[in-house]
Amino acid sequence: MIPDFTLDELLHELLVAPRAALVPLPDTTIIERPGWYQLITPSLAQGGMNEIIASRLPDEGTDALIDEAIATYRRLGIRFRWTVPPGAHPPDLADRLARRALTRSEALGMACSITAPPSMPSSVEEVSLANVDAFTEVMAEGWQMDPAPLDTLHRRMLTTPPHRQHLFLARAGDTPAAVASYVSLPRSAYLIGAVVLPAHRGKGLYRALVAARLAHAHSRALPLATSLARAETSAPILTHLGFKTICKIPVFTSE
């Protein structure tokens, strides 16, 4: 499907490799064991860095494990998501989560080769400490989140070595209107965090942010871009831009 990458390698770049580039906040807890990866970050109670990626749960005590994981977030008042990757066990894990008052959506794991990316669009600028405030304001407004913990997170991303988190801001004229980022990994660029403010949608800003990230990744000699895209929103645009669907992934979100 993608030259020089097997399906297993693509799934690794999409679902596993980005974990190594995580920039945790001081209150972030990481729980990792075979078949289980969990993040708990109380300061980001409205979302972000609060998730479970589960692939292989035991046959015995599965429901108790699910209930305790959900209860952990609810005790802390945290909004979280639970991603069910390909090959998850038990096979009915998604059905079990659906029975627990979580909202299901569909995501597509997508990838494309970075061969001849477009040049950096003039409407997009890379984010540094000089313009990170505008990036945070757009992100907070777009995702309806408190900007204070996001400000802390974004500044840590920009200043924590090795520098693997690359943030981008798109403007509509002079107005900050959209943001996105990507994580540079040894073999790929993982595209995340894109949001366009409602008043500025339909102006090509999402496409410009994709082009900017691919151009930046190409300058770092990265051959592959991946993204976990919402099936109803960003996935159709990425398909039009040449991304291929690698897998379909149920995602469950708390209210």
How is this structure best summarized?
With 255 residues, the chain is α+β, with helices and mostly antiparallel strands.
Query: What overall geometry do the principal axes of the alpha carbons give?
Result: globular
- Secondary structure tally: strands: 11
Low-confidence stretches: none
| Number of domains as seen in the coordinates | 2
Order of helices and strands: HEEEHEHEEHHEEEHEHE
Task: List the keywords.
single chain; alpha+beta; 7 helices; 255 residues; 11 strands; 2 domains
Describe this structure in words.
The protein has an eleven-stranded mixed beta sheet with strand order 1-2-3-4-11-5-10-9-8-7-6, sandwiched between helices. The chain has two domains: 8-108, no CATH class; 113-248, Gcn5-related N-acetyltransferase (GNAT) (Aminopeptidase, 3-Layer(aba) Sandwich), CATH 3.40.630.30. α4 packs across α5 (147-159). With 255 residues, it is α+β, with helices and mostly antiparallel strands. The chain starts with 6 loop residues before the first helix and ends with a strand. It is globular. Helices cover 30% and strands 29% of the residues.
Present the secondary structure layout.
Blueprint: H1 7-15, E1 29-33, E2 36-40, E3 51-54, H2 62-76, E4 81-83, H3 93-98, E5 103-113, E6 124-126, H4 132-143, H5 147-159, E7 165-172, E8 175-184, E9 189-196, H6 205-219, E10 224-230, H7 234-240, E11 244-253
Parallel strand pairs: 3-4, 9-10
Antiparallel strand pairs: 1-2, 2-3, 4-11, 5-10, 5-11, 6-7, 7-8, 8-9
Helix pairs in contact: 4-5
